[in-house]
Amino acid sequence: xxxxxxxxxxxxxxxxxxxxxxxxxxxxxxxxxxxxxxxxxxxxxxxxxxxxxxxxxxxxxxxxxxxxxxxxxxxxxxxxxxxxxxxxxxxxxxxxxxxxxxxxxxxxxxxxxxxxxxxxxxxxxxxxxxxxxxxxxxxxxxxxxxxxxxxxxxxxxxxxxxxxxxxxxxxxxx
Length: 174
Ligand SMILES: [Zn+2]
Known about the structure:
By secondary structure, the chain is α/β, with parallel strands linked by helices. Helices cover 38% and strands 15% of the residues. It has a five-stranded mixed β-sheet with strand order 2-1-3-4-5, with helices on both faces. Helix 3 runs parallel beside helix 5.
């Protein structure tokens, strides 16, 4: 029997957000509800420039598209395309309803986005995911990926956990 994997690091305590970060994270959480209403896993993300311009808004669309890489954060990065320059992205923030997985953390790294704010953390999310193999994620914190980046990626979260978890209640099969 394989022992359950231990998280490489526990989730840090819940962060307190200012009004601006709170408003944008709630927007990402709203997209997680949209994802669920459309039959997908409940995740949402937005990218916001330092001047407040919303550069991308996305939801997880893996069920709609059949594309297993269609996570909200990766979809948001894809939306940016070449329309936004790397300097703008370095001072931009990606808001995600949940802690980015290892693939999305990689996409954020490649995009040059310099800051991430997320809602529910991966450790808390695993309570919903349970032990079903097809629902489990790779147990690596997004901070492990960001810490390995040669350019700084600030990471704030978990935050607004009680609001972010609502979209997950009753969604995952136990
Ligand atoms: Zn992901």
